[in-house]
Amino acid sequence: MPAEGRAGRAVLRTAIAGQRRRVVTASLLGMGHQACEVLVPVVIGLVIDEAVATGDAPVLLRWLLVLGVLFLALSTCYRTSARITDAAGEHAAHRLRGELGDRVLDPRGGADTGRLPGALTALATGDAARVGAVAAAVPYAAAALAGLAVSAVALLRISVPLGLLILLGVPPLLWAGHRISRPLERRSEVEQERAAHASGVAADLVAGLRVLKGIGAEAAAVSRYRGTSRASLAAALRAAVSRAWHDGAILVLTGMFIVAIALVGAHLAMRDLISVGELVAAVGLAQFLLGPFQLLTYVSGEFAQGRASADRIAEVLASPPAVTTGAAPAAGTGSEDAHAPGEGAAAGRLALRGVVHGALRGVDLDAAPGELLGVVARDPAEAADLLRCLGRETDPDEGEIGVDGHPLTALDPDAVRRTVLVAHHDADLFESSLLDNVRAGTGLDDAALGPALAAAAADDVARTLPHGGRTLLTERGRSLSGGQRQRVALARALAADPPVLVLHDPTTAVDAVTEARVAARLRELRRGRTTVLVTTSPALLAVTDRVVVLDGGAVRAEGSHGDLVAGDAAYRSAVLA
Fold first, then answer.
1. In the chain, how long is the greatest CA-to-CA distance?
2. What is d(CA 174, CA 180) in angstroms, rounded to the nearest whole number?
3. CA distance 163 to 238
4. Which residues are CB-neighbours of 485 under 8 A, at least 6 positions away?
5. What's the CA gap between 575 and 577, in Å, rounded?
6. Of 103, 95, 101, 82, nearest to 131 (Cα)?
7. Distance CA 521, CA 529 (A)
8. Which residues pair with 373 in a beta bridge?
9. Residues 360, 342: Cα–Cα separation, whole Å
């Protein structure tokens, strides 16, 4: 068995084991329901033989009372079992969503590698629900098998050939059902994969809708989604056809089996080997058997689809981390205040030595504590790779990045990000108030947010809103303009006040006057704290203490902004063009 299949089955076993109490309780109740269902035709046969055939009214009343008790018991068992079974499925799916959420939010990353956000959402919804359905299907399987077993015993008491027919015929039917479910399992996996991809593409297009409209690429975007959606539809239809063939084939097999039981019973009655009441009971049991077989058909389909979804979930849960986990926390990143001054606080000395990753080809640079350092990368890929390494989204292939003399790879990733905060220029906002977006879990009161709002010129944004900073923003902050969103995101990064703040093009969408104001206020607010500005904005670079120029994947030049503008033509071209 492939490793993926073993991991998927482990996910299924864990999902079922996590709901063991509910599954066992529901199974026992379901078995009781099926046992009562079996006894109904048996009791009816006894009524015919012992009361109707003899005309004994007291016996008839006694057996009718027994039938009433049976119906009360089976209905109670059914309702209670169904409620517990549904709860088991929902709780199993919820637990899986929690595990997927923990893996996606793991500070080491890696779960989203090669996957669109919408695909992960589909895994946590559709696939988790299908695995949860397997936990809910187990009690149905137990009930169906109990029904078959009790039916076999009842038929053995009526006629040994009828009982043996069930005992010997059920195992081949179960084996055939398992074999028939194989194509459904394969096509269900493809169906879920295509659906997840379509969901991811849709989320990606919606997130970039404004940009697509701005560049007139709506037609290309629609064409892309239409193709993805059609592929998903085709996979869903193939899975539906497979499910139909699966269910139809199982019903044909079970129908033939039930007909065989009825024919054998009729033959035995014609030869006076069983009574009329026993024949009625046998026919009733044969009709009853359709229920357990339908349950087994349902369970077989749920297991086939659940195994496919479990394989996909197992693949995400087993995703290798993007970065390693260090044992030591970074200085000043304890559980109390990650940037509190005093003993243990991070000084903010940043050092890169021979860093090689992607477009970076041996970068060496230093940022002294409290320095405002500008970094100009002529190739956007160099900037992107530098930011990924500084934010510990990935580790360098070669070389080392350290903070205050400690290699980042030796530190806990979550603690590193509280010491070195990388704020990307395309950061998203949340569906909350403007102030809550800036506060973002820091616990600061409204007054304490004032300096960060002013430095990012986000206070101007608040004044234009109907309820000021308490105005609720729409999803991803789309009720604001691009420049307004950028200012609020910058204010959020400044309010966090980390020992080392790395800002990537924080003012690309604001006007020149606002940009100059942000640059001056930014320098003042971050005085004494290490700040790295990865940008080509001359207004921002003008307020830096020093500028480092990346070209060809390495540091090509460094100096003040004024000196580089005066003496470096390539720098002038990159910054002033």
1. 119
2. 10
3. 39
4. 429, 477, 509
5. 6
6. 95
7. 14
8. 532, 546
9. 36
Q: Are 383 and 504 in contact (CB under 8 A)?
A: yes
Name the nearest CA neighbour of 457 among 525, 503, 504: 525
Phi-psi region of 295 (alpha: psi -120 to 50; beta: other; left: phi over 0): alpha
Per the CB < 8 A criterion, the answer to whether 530 and 500 are in contact is yes
Query: Could you tell me how many helices (H) and strands (E) the chain has, helices first?
Result: 20, 10
Beta pairing, strands 406-407 & 530-534:
unpaired
Which of 409, 412, 355, 416 is CA-nearest to residue 386?
Answer: 355
Query: Residue 60: which residues within 8 A CB-CB, separation 6 or more?
Result: 47, 51, 52
The token duo for 491 is 């204010």
Element (DSSP H or E) covering residue 173: helix 160-207
Residue 327, token pair as written in the block? 């044992």
Rounded distance between C-alpha atoms, residue 7 and residue 313, angstroms? 9
Token duo for residue 51 = 């009361």
Could you give the CA distance from residue 413 to residue 108 in angstroms, rounded to a whole number? 6
Interstrand relation of 398-403 and 546-551 (parallel, antiparallel or unpaired): unpaired
Q: How far apart are CA 149 and CA 197, in angstroms?
A: 44
Q: Select from 134, 74, 82, 140 the least CA-distant residue to 295.
A: 140
H or E element that contains 576: helix 569-576
The H or E element spanning position 251 is helix 218-270
* Cα–Cα distance for residue pair 525/544, rounded to 1 Å: 13
Chain-centre distance of CA 318, in angstroms? 13
Q: Say if CB 399 and CB 358 are below 8 A apart.
A: no
**pLDDT in 10s for each residue of the chain, 577 residues:** 555 567 888 888 888 888 999 999 999 999 999 999 888 888 888 888 787 777 788 888 888 898 899 999 999 999 999 999 999 999 999 999 999 989 988 888 888 887 776 778 878 888 899 899 999 999 999 999 998 888 888 878 887 887 777 777 777 876 777 677 777 667 776 776 777 666 666 666 665 655 555 556 667 767 777 787 788 778 778 878 877 887 788 778 777 877 887 788 777 777 778 777 777 777 777 778 777 877 887 888 788 888 888 988 998 899 888 888 776 555 444 434 444 333 346 789 999 999 999 999 999 999 999 999 999 998 999 999 999 999 998 999 999 999 998 999 888 888 888 899 999 887 788 889 999 999 987 889 999 999 999 999 999 999 999 999 999 998 778 888 888 999 999 999 999 999 999 999 999 989 999 999 999 999 999 999 999 999 999 999 999 999 999 999 999 999 999 999 999 999 999 998 7
* Token output for 59: 């016996």
